Amino acid sequence: MSESRIVAVANQKGGVGKTTTAINLAAALGEQGQRVVVIDLDPQGNASTGLGVSPESRPITSYDLLTGDASFSDCLLPTQFEKLSLIPSDRDLASVDFEVANRSGRMQLLQKKISHVADFDFILIDCPPALGLLTLNAMVAADSVLVPLQAEFYALEGLSQLLMTVREVRQAANPDLRIEGVLLTMSDNRNNLSQQVEADARNTLSGLVYNTVIPRNVRLSEAPSHAMPVLQYDSNSKGSIAYRELAKEFLSRQFVAA
Ligand code: ADP
Ligand code: MG
């Protein structure tokens, strides 16, 4: 059995749709028959909550995976959703930066635990909104980085900083790290600025930007408070349709790359 493909969902800006994308792309891939694990690597634990795992039901977390003896399978929790498992996070994760600051191999903590996992098709890592040690661990462990981009004025500036970090990670630790794709999120086609940023992103990044665009959709923002992906919360919403479309495009690109 081949190794799982590992995708870090990253952008150092908060509120751009990382967690929403990790949860809903995972759910859509599951619906399409793929076995998926989401690793919540954000101390806020939004991906864990959004997949129906409350803070009281997280016996072992990504904190234990990174800093302790826990193995990948020790940390896995099933979810109520098709073919979808979770490694949850909790607040402890916020202290990892500090705790392992002087440990050698501190960028490889996650890689050590997940590089040979083979029972899944995809592992999606939901990164925190910073380019600190947690996101670096995700990038070192990953095959590729998926970047949600909210179409607003400073979006492309932030993106060039992120791409610089990807180049640094390639040089230092993970030469084969690819950009999986850039995903335009929270798009509003009545907003001229948003349309201009989308056009600029496509010009600058050409093939990297997914054809699929995620529209601003209130059902996407309501779903987490019902502890489920939008595909389960409102299967026919614009958000559901967009993430299903993204999953198809994502899979078709895997096929080309393989
Ligand atoms: P991040 O993980 O990058 O911080 P989130 O995925 O948590 O971002 O999204 C930030 C907020 O915006 C959340 O409240 C989320 O529900 C909402 N949101 C994300 N994507 C959309 C969308 N396409 N339409 C409407 N609301 C969205
Ligand atoms: Mg998040």
Automatic annotation (TrEMBL):
Q: Domain of life of the organism in this record?
A: Bacteria
List residues of the AAA domain.
5-179
InterPro entries in UniProt? AAA_dom (IPR025669), DNA_Partitioning_ATPase (IPR050678), P-loop_NTPase (IPR027417)
Task: Relate the protein's function as given in its record.
Answer: Involved in chromosome partition. Localize to both poles of the predivisional cell following completion of DNA replication.
Protein name from the UniProt record: Chromosome partitioning protein ParA
> Source species, please?
Paracoccus aestuariivivens
